[in-house]
Amino acid sequence: MDVPSRKNDQPWIYFNLSPPTYSPIEFIEPHTFNWTVTYRSDSDIPYPYGKIVLREPTELKGSEEAQGEFNIRQKKNKLVAWTVSHCVTEGRREEFVHKLQSFINVDVYGECGDFSCLHSSREDDIGCFKELEKSYKFYLSLENSLCHDYVTEKFYLALNSNLVPVVYGCVKYSTLAPPHSFIDVRQFESIEKLAQYLLFLDKNPEKYEKYFEWKQKYKVVTKTIREDVWCSVCEKIVRSKLQTWKDRKSYPDINLWFNSKQLVPQPEEACVAPTFSKKKLSLRRV
After folding, report:
1. pLDDT of residue 206
2. Crossing angle, helix 191-203 and helix 93-100, to 10 degrees?
3. Which of 38, 87, 13 is nearest to 270 (CA)?
4. Of 32, 78, 84, 260, which has the highest C-beta tally within 10 A?
5. 265 cis-preceded (ω within 30 degrees of 0)
6. Mean pLDDT by 10 residues, the chain (286 residues)
7. What is this structure's pTM?
């Protein structure tokens, strides 16, 4: 890889929002990059696809709005939806869905399915999710790669809609979202057990409704993240001018860092492969 020359006082940033499985790094000279801006929480400046924050007192949901959402959810007559454009993935999510369809109906939207959103040209925008929330109870938030901290916008789009996301990824979702706001595939010993639980919630509205109670105190934020990240970059650049070049942080091997979940005591791979059948389900580790 050809790397341009730079000024001695110029910090360099490694920026990447894709997982290692889809963005391999070519050889880079040691200590080329000073900072990282990626989806990973251990980046110098994390750049998540979304986040959940406490509502301001003036934003707390009133009884009228809450009742309106309740009525919308009561009218749902379909179970599970999934929107997807990458049909074959490193995380083998397509195999997971195929096995799940052995037990329950899953409507697949986008290039890899038989359904399309009527009022949206893309299956991953807010318009499509607003359409899905009117009929479906659950949404499959399945990552294309099982890599450390990798959670994309579809998780947050589902949370921001009246859908319960069923999550499949290599991350502790409890650190990202409130309790009882999602259903984690890894909490079930088999795909069949997961399907049985979704059918149970479908037949028990009062249990299903509890997956929306978190919205009274929290909200999803996506639009301001980009501005916050680049403001943080600017602040970091200003602070770095107070340091000498020798005192600045740098990465001896950016490839090793990005492809590892941890570096000590020994490097541990950032991405894993799933092992599952109808009877067993395992993502090996998180």
Report:
1. 93
2. 60
3. 38
4. 84
5. yes
6. 70 93 85 94 96 86 53 79 93 94 95 85 77 95 95 95 94 95 93 96 94 93 91 89 71 93 81 70 53
7. 0.89
Reduce the secondary structure of the chain to three states and give it as a string.
CCCCCCCCCCCCEEEECCCCCCCCCCCCCCCCCCEEEECCCCCCCCCCCCEEEECCHHHCCCHHHHHHHHHHHHCCCEEEEEECCCCCCCCCHHHHHHHHCCCCCEEEECCCCCECCCCCCCCCCHHHHHHHCCCEEEEEEECCCCECCCCCHHHHHHHHCCCEEEEECCCCHHHCCCCCCCEEHHHCCCHHHHHHHHHHHHHCHHHHHHHHHHHHCEEEECCCHHHHHHHHHHHHHHHHCCCCHHHCCCCCCHHHHHCEEECCCCCEECECCCEECCCCEECCCC
**Structure confidence at residue 63 (pLDDT):** 47
User: What residues does each domain of the chain span?
Assistant: 1-286
**Both structure tokens of 197:** 């639980």
pLDDT of residue 280: 58
